[in-house]
Amino acid sequence: MDTTLNLDATNGCIAAFGIAINAGLAAGALPTVFTQTRAAMPIDGNLIDCTLAHATGSVGNVELELNLRFEEEALVSASLTLTPHRFRQLDDEAFYKSVDDRYRYHQRWLRSQGIPDISQAFPWGIAGVARDKSENVHLYVLYRKVPPPHRDAK
To answer: Which end of the chain, N or C, is more open, meaning fewer C-beta atoms within 10 Å of its C-beta?
Structure first.
């Protein structure tokens, strides 16, 4: 398997698991390393048909967890968790104490990809670093929805 991991700041394309992940990717084009589930999810007050895809692997000495969300077959978001060796197998106390270091690690990786700020907007979408209530840290890429082509009324 290809062990490349990149995020192209010019177009939002993520290179991981041997494929290019971008707003034009279809869930059906994902390699078998991804597990997929379908679910109707509440988004902006509406139930939207979603496909969730998940893959794990390693890039050098870093474990990678990648989650993708497709809404009505369009890729709308990616979440990447990078775990270098020093953050693996931490007990609860060490895990919670390491949250700031894990956050900075993800920030440095994002900067190394040409995205200088914590949350940066681009024509293709937004990328940044986040942490949840459980102190898990991840990178996020939110792709802008492309409106459907205008159809003239007849």
So the answer is: C
